[in-house]
Write a structure and sequence with these properties.
Strands 1, 2, 7, 8, 9, 10 and 20 form a seven-stranded mixed sheet that branches. A seven-stranded antiparallel sheet has the order 17-16-13-14-15-12-18. Helix 1 packs parallel to helix 5 and helix 9 runs antiparallel to helix 12. It is α+β, with helices and mostly antiparallel strands and 390 residues long. It is elongated. The protein has two domains: 241 residues, FAD/NAD(P)-binding domain (3-Layer(bba) Sandwich), CATH 3.50.50; 135 residues, Translation factors (Elongation Factor Tu (Ef-tu), domain 3, Beta Barrel). Bound molecules: dihydroflavine-adenine dinucleotide. The site of dihydroflavine-adenine dinucleotide has 37 residues, from helix 1, helix 2 and helix 13.
Length: 390
């Protein structure tokens, strides 16, 4: 069957692209191997879909070319997506830091995009395995288990590798390689970090404890909560910084980001109070204070600290260093860092420079957002841009 555009992947970016192209009058076929539409939207934001971020800017994204996402983000902004959400009467609220969530479930966003595709006359086929993609003189030919399809434009929106249990595959990366496009290295990102056995055992009793910190790794620096787990650390501060962490790197946590620990310890120098009790002033849970001080060999009364020990403790409170031994991998990662090299694509259209008519959008591209609605905004923006040019 002949179409103008075939979009592979009915997730966030693919739905946006198909709807946009369809509403331009293009005959669009949207294919997905999964049974259900946009499973990642469904599970996102704890079921409420953090669908954009008011502060989405190019510097909230990681990529070998950090400027690549500028054009798409300018062509389709958070305000454009919010306008669509409002047009569909979907209630939303800002949770924190510009993060917009649905008042009701994420299904509302899926239904909205599905309706936009319907308005564009998009032909959608789920549970379709794509067996072969080849290039022809006037476009692309696809052999799928539901038949053979042809189109002048082919848009690849198959996402990243995270959460394979709901349909993630390396299909998009393999297709890029088939057409000679370069990939940047792929790693799980926005992912919990794991500790070596002895650290994990030491902190296991703290599983569930949460604390506001500034987490630092490489060029990443985020002020949010850390959550101790049975295997290591998670929580927004860690998920954010995980995108900057690489094996072998030390993770540094400022455990008292609002205080000046050296002056505080100085003021309390003569106190009979146990340090673990005094730290409750900063909202530290007692069991965390005790376990942390125990490990630092410092579980004593404030008056028993020498001036040198006070300085050392202050340094560690503002820069506690721990060496993770890895991440919890794609099973727990929200996204994949890396992907189709931006060098191979036009930032204005998302089309492959060397393969006219072939587009890559969304997470399969080497553009990875911070936690907080940035990744969906990239999916909407890149999907829209390709939809306007395919
Ligand atoms: P997406 O993964 O959405 O879609 C890819 C589609 O391609 C899927 O439908 C898949 O079935 C299909 N596909 C894959 N291989 C195929 C093949 N071989 N053949 C045919 N079809 C194939 N982001 C955010 O901004 N706010 C949030 O709240 C969250 N929350 C969140 C929670 C969790 C648990 C995860 C795992 C991720 C998030 N994210 C997020 C990230 C966000 O979900 C992600 O960045 C976008 O869904 C990416 O959109 P894409 O369309 O590129 O891929």
């Amino acid at each position: 069957m002949q179409y103008d555009v075939i979009v592979i992947g009915a997730g966030a970016a693919g739905l946006m692209c198909a709807a946009t192209a369809g509403q331009r009058g293009r005959r669009v076929l949207l294919l997905d191997h999964a049974r259900k539409l946009a499973e990642k939207i469904r599970i996102s934001g704890g079921g409420r879909c953090n669908f954009t971020n008011l502060h989405a800017r190019f510097d909230c994204y990681l990529s070998a070319n950090p400027h690549f996402c500028r054009s798409a983000l300018a062509q389709y902004t958070p305000q454009d997506f919010i306008a669509m959400v409002e047009r569909h009467g979907i209630g939303y609220h800002e949770k924190k830091l510009g993060q917009l969530f649905c008042d009701d479930g994420s299904e509302r966003i899926i239904a909205m995009l599905d309706e936009e595709c319907r308005l564009g006359g998009v032909d959608r086929r789920m549970e379709t395995q794509i067996l072969k993609v080849s290039r022809e003189a006037d476009g692309f030919a696809l052999d799928a288990d539901g038949g053979s399809f042809r189109a002048a434009s082919l848009v690849v929106a198959t996402g990243g590798l995270s959460i394979p249990q709901i349909g993630a595959t390396p299909f998009g990366y393999q297709l890029a390689e088939q057409f000679g496009l370069e990939l940047t290295p792929l790693t799980p990102a926005l992912v919990p970090l794991t500790f070596h056995v002895e650290d994990a055992e030491a902190f296991a009793p703290l599983a569930g404890v949460s604390l506001e910190v500034e987490a630092r790794a490489g060029k990443g620096r985020f002020r949010e909560n850390v959550l101790f787990t049975h295997k290591g650390v998670s929580g927004p501060a860690i998920l954010q910084v995980s995108s900057y962490w690489q094996p072998g790197m030390t993770l540094e946590l400022d455990l008292l980001p609002d205080a000046d620990a050296a002056s505080w310890l100085e003021q309390k120098a003569g106190s009979e109070q146990l340090i673990s009790n005094a730290l409750a002033e900063f909202g530290w849970p007692k069991r965390f204070a005790e376990a942390w001080l125990e490990r630092e060999g410092c579980n004593k009364r404030l008056k028993d600290l020498s001036p040198k020990q006070r300085l050392q403790l202050a340094e560690r409170l503002h820069g506690w260093r721990v060496k993770p031994n890895g991440t919890q991998g794609y099973k727990k990662a929200e996204v994949t860092l890396g992907g189709v090299s931006t060098k191979a694509l036009s930032s204005k259209t998302m089309m492959a420079n060397a393969v006219p008519g072939l587009f890559f959008i969304g997470e399969v591209v080497d553009v990875t957002g911070w936690l907080g609605g940035y990744n969906f905004q990239w999916a909407w923006s890149s999907g829209y841009v390709a939809g306007m040019h395919c």
